[in-house]
């Protein structure tokens, strides 16, 4: 499962134009907007500090239709624990190397962009709190018991679940359009929506044709995104697309 936390700019150094490095407070021990507590002393930073990448809007994995772009990685990062906070130091790529990195860097300096989102995977099973913090309590709070930092991204709107849902809908529509083109328009959109993922893969491999189904209403994309999802954004998008077209 990949989870996101939201952080903010910590400070802008006087020589920021020269270093292109900005520090963010990525996480602390307080309860976040998702109703979780991620203990600062239980972060595993080893892998991130050996190859820490900085992205924009977590768009660093490539999408399910193969649109991979190395410029989506806009810089490098280093993480450390300081004063009971997870501090992430971001160094943005030069303008001549990556125009997107330059734009994000300038927007941070201008104050338009202020937030980062930290992606991590739990390494141990956590637990719900007690009393009002129990799962069915008035203030349900989940306490993680160990987590590994995967990547950090500058984001537009922190913790916007509705935006995430819209993103999944858009990805599903893109996937169906991609499949329609890949199959040379031999199947109607309604037929593609009724196919199972394995049928589509078989068609793309030209192994067999799927069983035809009666044309019906297009299935709706799920409103709720389960928390026990896959380990990266590409897997999540594929899983959501499968839910949308696999009955």
From TrEMBL:
Lineage top rank: taxon: Bacteria
Any one GO BP annotation for this protein: proteolysis
Molecular function (Gene Ontology), one example: peptidase activity
Full protein name: Prohead serine protease domain-containing protein
Keywords, sorted A to Z: Hydrolase, Protease, Viral release from host cell
Domain (Prohead serine protease) ranges: 98-163
Compositional bias annotation for Basic and acidic residues: 206-215
Keyword Endoplasmic reticulum appears in the UniProt entry: no
Region listing for Disordered, in residue ranges: 206-233
Organism: Odoribacter splanchnicus
Biased composition (Acidic residues): 216-226
Matching InterPro entries: Peptidase_S78_dom
């Amino acid at each position: 499962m990949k989870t996101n936390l939201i952080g903010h700019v910590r400070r802008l150094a006087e020589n920021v134009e020269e270093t292109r490095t900005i520090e963010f407070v990525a996480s602390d021990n307080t309860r976040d907007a998702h109703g979780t507590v991620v203990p600062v002393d239980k972060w595993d930073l080893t892998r991130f500090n050996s190859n820490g990448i900085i992205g924009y809007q977590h768009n660093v994995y490539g999408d399910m239709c193969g649109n991979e772009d190395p410029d989506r990685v806009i810089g490098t990062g280093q993480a450390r624990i300081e004063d009971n906070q997870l501090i992430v130091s971001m160094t943005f790529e030069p303008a001549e190397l990556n125009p997107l990195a330059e734009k994000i860097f300038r927007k941070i300096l201008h104050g338009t962009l202020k937030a980062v989102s930290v992606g991590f995977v739990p390494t141990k099973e956590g637990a719900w709190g007690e009393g009002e913090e129990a799962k069915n309590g008035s203030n349900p709070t989940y306490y993680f018991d160990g987590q590994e930092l995967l990547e950090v991204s500058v984001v537009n709107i922190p913790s916007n679940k509705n935006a995430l849902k819209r993103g999944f809908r858009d990805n599903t529509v893109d996937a169906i359009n991609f499949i329609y083109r890949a199959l040379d328009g031999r199947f109607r959109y309604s037929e593609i929506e009724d196919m199972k993922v394995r049928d589509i893969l078989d068609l793309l491999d030209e192994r067999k044709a799927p069983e035809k189904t009666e044309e019906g209403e297009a299935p709706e994309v799920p409103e709720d995104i389960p928390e026990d999802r896959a380990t990266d954004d590409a897997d999540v998008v594929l899983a959501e697309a499968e839910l949308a077209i696999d009955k």
